[in-house]
Each structure stands twice: as C-alpha cells, then as structure tokens.
Design a protein that fits this description.
alpha/beta; six-stranded mixed sheet; 8 strands; disordered N terminus
C-alpha cells in the first residue's frame, strides 16, 4: 500500500524536509554494512552509496571499505542540499507550493472512519487547526508524518547525508546536489489528488506498525540486503503508477544520465542517494548497466 511507501520513502528515497525529534537506542552495525558500488574507467571513479536520511542517534554503519571510498572521493553529490544556515529558504519553498486558497477542509479529503485519527494527529503538531485546511493534501501528509517520525526517535542530523556532508565540509571538499529542494517537493505537488489523499491516510497510520516497518527497513539496509529493499519498494508502488514514476523511475533515469555525463570528466566522487534508488529492476544501477557500464559492488 502507498502508506508504507510514504513512511519508508521519506527515509529511504530522500526528500528529507521534516524536523525530527531526538533520542533512540543506537543500532548495532551488521557484519556486511550498507551496499556500496563503483563505476569507473581509466580516469574517473564514481562510488554509489544507498542511504537512509533519518537515523537514530549513534547509529553505527560505517565500514573500512566505505571509509576507503569516502576518503578517496574528492567530491560528494547528494540528492539535494538543505541550507541549514537559512532554513527560511526551504520554509518559503514549502509555503509557496504547499498552501492554496479554496481547498476543501482537510478532514473531508479522507474516509469518514479515519477522521478521528486525523484530528488526533493534527493536535499533536501543536499547529493552529485552520492552517491544515489551507494545505495541499501532500503538504499536510508531510507535516503529520513529521510527528509520526518523532515516535521513532530518528533524526535528520544523524542521517547518512548529514553525516557525510559534515565530513566533507570538515575536509574542505565540495558537496553538490542532483536536485533542488523545489524540484523534490514538486514531485509531490504534481501528484493527482487521489494519490495525495493516500499519502495523507498513510501519515496517520498506527505508529506501532510504522515502527515495525521502519526497523525492517533499517535491518535490510544495514545488512546490505538490496534484494529486500528492491522488493519492498516494488510492492509498495504497485498500486500507484503515478507515484512510482514521479518518485522513482524518472528520477533514477535522470540521475543515471547525470552519472554518464560525469564519467566523461576525470576525478573521484561519491554519489549518495536513497537506498531505494539503487535497488530493483528500474534502479540507477540498472539504467547504467543498460548503457553499457560495468557496476561493481564493493560491499
């Protein structure tokens, strides 16, 4: 179902645009570690690393093979860059895209049986109730999902991208992006209303179930179990071709094209994107292989 995608997706596909609360037990690192690949030719090496954007505090996932690739990379490229020194910039983008006039009340956009759960979730945000009626349905889903993730204790500043970005900044190495914040949010903004409403319903699902699914995803990621990650995302997207195209396949193809262009320049870099983009038959890796590139798995 779509609700599983939205909950996994914001953590494993990217679009980490929410404030997440702290505190959670640390995760033990698996023996193998998250999956890492390499595409290279005589003068260019690109490491491809699948990430999770939100993690509990003190999560341990770095391995010796990963550290070698990291230290050898001259540049880091992420899905998008959030300007932590200027959070108002992202807030302004969200406000311009996520609010509209003349919308029906938010509670009327889901089944009547789920409205009490929606109202309870809105109360937890501590935002004025009328604000939600002015939100696009996808934006309301984002806001409510932020509260859901608080129950997991995962943090954006502990996520892989944040950790890597700090590491490269400390070493004086550049960090780039594949998409702007506005481009990422536009994927949701352009979804048909029925898909947006499915996201909203998913954002108010049972927190206990969410915790269980999130832990499953973390375990698969830590173990480098790419097959399980790919299977999960493919199953979750079966019911919504629009969502699959918007969040996964189009972006994967676009990123593979970026990598192909970058392969024509010398140097070594690391491209770190959500783990779901590097798993399955329509992954970035598959598109590269279809173009004739040899993708070597390092761990």
């Amino acid at each position: 179902m779509i609700f599983r995608l939205i909950r996994r997706g914001l953590a494993a596909l990217g679009l980490a645009t929410m404030a997440i609360a702290p505190t959670a037990p640390a995760l033990a690192r698996s023996n193998s570690g998250p999956a890492l690949w390499q595409v290279s030719d005589k003068d260019t090496t690109i490491y491809l690393f699948g990430t999770i954007h939100l993690l509990p505090k003190d999560s341990r996932w770095r391995t010796s093979k990963f550290e070698k690739a990291l230290n050898g990379s001259q540049t880091l490229v992420l899905e998008t860059l959030i300007d932590e020194a200027n959070p108002q910039q992202l807030a302004a983008v969200m406000a311009s895209m996520g609010f509209s006039s003349g919308l029906p009340p938010l509670t009327t956009r889901i089944d009547a049986a789920k409205r009490p759960a929606l109202e309870a979730a809105i109360v937890k945000t501590k935002l004025p109730r009328p604000v939600f009626d002015k939100m696009e349905t996808w934006a309301a889903a984002f806001t409510l999902l932020g509260v859901q993730f608080q129950t997991l204790g995962v943090q954006g500043d502990q996520g892989v991208e944040a950790v890597l970005r700090r590491s490269f900044a400390a070493a004086g190495k550049p960090v780039g992006q594949l998409e702007t914040n506005q481009e990422q949010l536009s994927f949701f903004d352009r979804l048909p209303e029925n898909a947006q409403r499915q996201l909203l319903e998913g954002a108010i699902e049972n927190p206990d179930e969410m915790r269980s699914k999130f832990n499953e995803m973390l375990a698969a990621w830590l173990a480098g179990d790419v097959s399980s990650i790919g299977k999960t995302f493919n199953e979750d997207l079966q019911t919504s071709p629009e969502l699959k195209a918007a969040l996964l396949t189009r972006r994967n193809y676009n990123w593979s094209q970026w990598i192909e262009r970058r392969m024509k320049q010398p140097g070594t870099l690391m491209v770190a994107v959500g783990a779901g983009h590097l798993a399955g038959d329509e992954s970035v890796l598959r598109y590269l292989q279809r173009s004739g590139y040899k993708v070597k798995r390092l761990q």
